[in-house]
Protein 1
Amino acid sequence: MASAAFAGEVLVADAGSADGTVEAARAAGATVLERTGPTIAAQRNAAIAAARHSWIFALDADERITPELAAELRAVLSAPAHAAYRVRRRNFYLGVEQTRGGWARDWVVRLFGKDRRYVERRVHEGLEPIADVGDLATTLLHHPYRTLGHHVEKLQRYAEWGAEDLWDRGVRATWTDLSLRPLGRFFKAYLLGGGVLDGRVGLVQAGLGAYAGFLKYAYLWAREQKQD
């Protein structure tokens, strides 16, 4: 909330939390939309529709806008040259910035016109395709996990949501999905992605990434067993 104070309007899309988020957001001056939908995409779309201004910057609760990014956003919006803009996230894992692998090449489209919407899916929601996307020079801070336990809890929830998305698309878990796919994900992150250069942190990240891939297809397999 504090990092977005420069904006002309701050909206918080809440999905029915019970941890004081609504009260804290309102006390900080935000317009709060309660029970905006079961998915992150639905929550984002509800906030976009309610916004008063013509440009949107989508911000997650675990992200922070730096003063440099705030200044760049003001400059860009004074004379926009593209239909949307993407920004690179600086990812921090358990307090340590990640400078190698996919964590260091994390670009997300976050600045766009109010006429755009997010594609509805349970996990890894994305903005609808936009042909004309520019790059912002400054960065967005991202602290996705408070603790290792929080990481495990979050990946389990996302694995279950991901399995539901696959089920809805008619995908079913195969032997390869449950065995070779997680191994491939591990070696891609650890060896090809440079995780090996990060020592034990890279090993933990690659291992948990492989586990998340396995768990997603395990949930999908369990859903299929339930249907039999």
Note: The mean pLDDT is 92.
Protein 2
Amino acid sequence: ARKSRENLTTNRQALEKEVRGNAWDHIHRNKRSIAINLQKPEGQAIFHRLVKDADVFFGSFRLGVYQRLGADYETLSKINPRLIYATISGYGVGNSFTEWPGNERNAQGMSGVSALMTGQDGEPADMLCQPVDAYSAALAVVSIQSALFARERTGRGQKVDIALVEGGTAFVNANVPDYLRNKKVRKRGFPSIGNLRCKDGKYLSNAAFAQAHFWAPFCDAVGLAEMRDTVPSGNEEMIRKVRAHMLSKTRDEWLAVIPREISVVPMLEFDEVLEGPYANERGMVLELDHPLEGKVRQLKSPFRLSDTPPTFRRFAPVLGEHTAEVLQSIGYSENEIGELEAAGVVRAQNFLR
């Protein structure tokens, strides 16, 4: 009994640590979590019972894993022909890379994203975010929604196969026509004035040079009227002159004289993003009451719908927090759930109760 109490205390501490981390996890809020061991036949039986009435299955394993776990498309579509079966993998189905491990870094490399990211030395630079993961997830969501809409007409589900590499190439889509039409390969290390350093070390995000009708008023505003008739794209000497000139004033001093109509805005660091006027006016950050953490702040959903806006219902769950609740809803008794947990088929203990 003493050993059991010690284990319970240890497990509770681990769970509370996990909860504290998830208190900040806006990606998984409003979800429930059940933990099933799909390597056991009993676990697969539970999973198949859940699939029977599900609308969508989504997974992000390597593609060969699903069959071993009884979660492949052929198996699940027989259980539920209306199921939308969606996967995101590194390379997608039916190619020589299908079974290779793939992640954000690999996808950036194989999709063309890395080739477009350049450091000051002209070498490919790391991105401090995961654009390919995020864009591929958005592609999956749109595909799932399209499949659900099609199901309303046909009554049938279908398979959605999203590859990170394809997602990355689609993400840099503006560069694709230059190659497909003109065989143009953009070179790394090209000089740019897209981000302009100012006297105080802060930057302006400058799109004026990309459109001729913005360039002339930009030059007039900053005191470079002699350049107004020549956009300095690719001209290293002119670019160096613009960069040097912009070091004469602070970012805010420049913003005070540059007309807002010509696509020049402050380049914000993250503290400025999340604490600044735009985030405040849009209500981008929520302040919430967490049962263990107290006041926590999370990013609000970017989906803005007038009639059915997203709402906050629950914090991100810990692993298996809702296993008992979900299993009871599909007919399992408390004794059966306890036996399944003792056998290592599910994780169902909720130490927060």
Note: Residues 131-154 form the longest helix (24 residues).
